[in-house]
């Protein structure tokens, strides 16, 4: 009985539940609502001065939106898990295949080195480090966009999310340490710290956790000290990236402690989407008629990711629910299909889709560049590698 309720078992059950598409949609939505309802006496700025009214219509719209996504995702996810695994992928593209790991590593290195070179060429070394010392690394992040950024070589930098997670997974599995492991970890640290990509840090953590917990037994295999060290490392990275990106703004608001600054920033980003979602419900006629929420919502202009619900409603009107139900069914099914392939690299598609569902509370990510780059590259590499290995074997035989 004591073993049943041990912290390790409790943590394992929590991880198993959280790392599913239906719960990963609902949890950030709950946190967004929680942040919005925090009393003003706590002293945190939430991105608005006038809270929206909470009534049956406004709150009901938000609840229907998230729970309908969770319901259809859950159903499709379980259907996807019933699809038969392709044995050729299990044979040729197992997770311990070093060649595929090197491929992801080289792709991410090419993309990220190109981004670093282009950024420093545009800003110059002085302006680059000036942005770091003045805690305005947003300047660094925007540099490639100021050069007419489009989908291409720079987009490959997103694959560092996968290669870093794979490097951590290899360390977790205690496999032989490779040069690529060190390169992936160092490049990822540079990318997160200087480019301030905090949510991409979260995405990489998703990928690692899904890989480590693919057989739902991570806590039985992991050194508990290393597990909490990993958590503290992630939090440390989040604090550093937040301070370098936003410290000046929060210093003007009276915050100086880096941990408090990070927490205040999280509260602001969490509460804003719930404020805007309530506003859609309170102004449903205008939203369904294509009027953008900024015309009738009190929200800071600096907050640009204020829920998929808010972004899509003016575009699709009443059919926004139908649109996202279809999205939930398609990607929920794919999530179940990829999750079943827990022994091969096709599994990488699962945490990528999981991350897109996680982002629904603040943005529709399913057809954005970062998502498409991660999904197409991770899955495409597996399918091409498996096909080539199969063809090679047939020629030999």
Model description:
This protein has 397 residues and is mainly α. It has one domain. Helix content is 70%, strand content 0%. The chain contains 17 helices and no strands.
Summarize the structure.
The chain is an all-alpha fold.
Query: How far apart are the termini?
Result: 56 Å
Beta-strand content = under 5%
Major beta sheet, specifics?
none
Overall residue-averaged pLDDT value: 88
Order of helices and strands: HHHHHHHHHHHHHHHHH
Shape: globular
Overall tally of structural domains = 1
Low-confidence stretches: none
Per DSSP, the total helix count is 17
If you compute it from the alpha carbons, what radius of gyration comes out, rounded to the nearest whole angstrom?
Answer: 22 Å
Number of strands: 0
Helix content: 55-70%
* Multimeric organization: single chain
Helix/strand structural class? mainly alpha
Secondary-structure map:
Blueprint: H1 7-18, H2 21-37, H3 56-80, H4 87-92, H5 98-133, H6 138-142, H7 160-172, H8 179-195, H9 198-212, H10 218-221, H11 224-252, H12 258-282, H13 284-288, H14 308-316, H15 320-340, H16 349-358, H17 369-396
Helix pairs in contact: 2-3, 2-12, 2-16, 3-12, 3-15, 5-7, 5-8, 7-8, 7-9, 8-11, 9-11, 9-16, 11-12, 15-16, 16-17
């Amino acid at each position: 009985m004591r073993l049943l309720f041990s912290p390790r078992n409790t943590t394992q059950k929590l991880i198993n539940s959280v790392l599913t598409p239906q719960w990963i949609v609902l949890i950030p939505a709950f946190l967004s609502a929680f942040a919005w309802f925090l009393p003003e006496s706590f002293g945190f700025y939430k991105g608005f001065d006038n809270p929206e009214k909470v009534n049956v219509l406004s709150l009901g719209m938000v609840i229907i939106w998230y729970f309908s996504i969770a319901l259809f995702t859950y159903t499709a996810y379980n259907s996807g898990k019933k699809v038969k695994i392709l044995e050729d992928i299990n044979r040729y593209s197992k997770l311990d295949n070093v060649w595929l790991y090197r491929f992801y590593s080289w792709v991410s290195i090419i993309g990220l080195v190109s981004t670093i070179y282009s950024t420093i060429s545009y800003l110059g070394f002085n302006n680059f480090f000036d942005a770091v010392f003045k805690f305005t690394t947003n300047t660094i992040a925007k540099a490639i966009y100021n050069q007419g950024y489009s989908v291409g070589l720079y987009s490959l930098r997103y694959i560092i999310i996968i290669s870093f997670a794979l490097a951590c997974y290899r360390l977790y599995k205690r496999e032989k340490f490779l040069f690529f492991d060190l390169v992936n970890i160092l490049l990822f640290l540079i990318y997160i710290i200087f480019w301030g990509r905090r949510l991409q840090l979260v995405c990489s953590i998703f990928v690692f956790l899904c890989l480590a917990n693919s057989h739902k037994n991570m806590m039985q295999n992991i050194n508990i000290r290393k597990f909490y060290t990993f958590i503290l490392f992630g939090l440390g990275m989040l604090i550093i990236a937040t301070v370098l990106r936003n410290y000046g703004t929060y210093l003007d608001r009276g915050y100086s402690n880096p941990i408090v600054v990070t927490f205040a920033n999280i509260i602001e980003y969490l509460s804003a989407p719930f404020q805007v979602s309530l506003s859609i419900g309170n102004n449903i006629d205008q939203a369904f008629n294509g009027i953008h929420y900024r015309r009738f919502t009190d929200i800071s202009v600096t907050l640009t990711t204020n829920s998929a619900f808010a972004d899509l409603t003016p575009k699709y009107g009443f059919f926004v629910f139908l649109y996202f139900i279809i999205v939930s069914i398609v990607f929920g099914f794919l999530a179940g299909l990829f999750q079943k392939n827990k022994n091969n690299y096709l599994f990488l598609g699962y945490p990528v889709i999981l991350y897109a569902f996680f982002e629904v509370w603040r943005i529709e990510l399913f057809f954005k560049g970062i998502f498409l780059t991660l999904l197409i590259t991770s899955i495409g590499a597996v399918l091409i590698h498996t096909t080539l290995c199969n063809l090679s074997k047939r020629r030999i035989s």
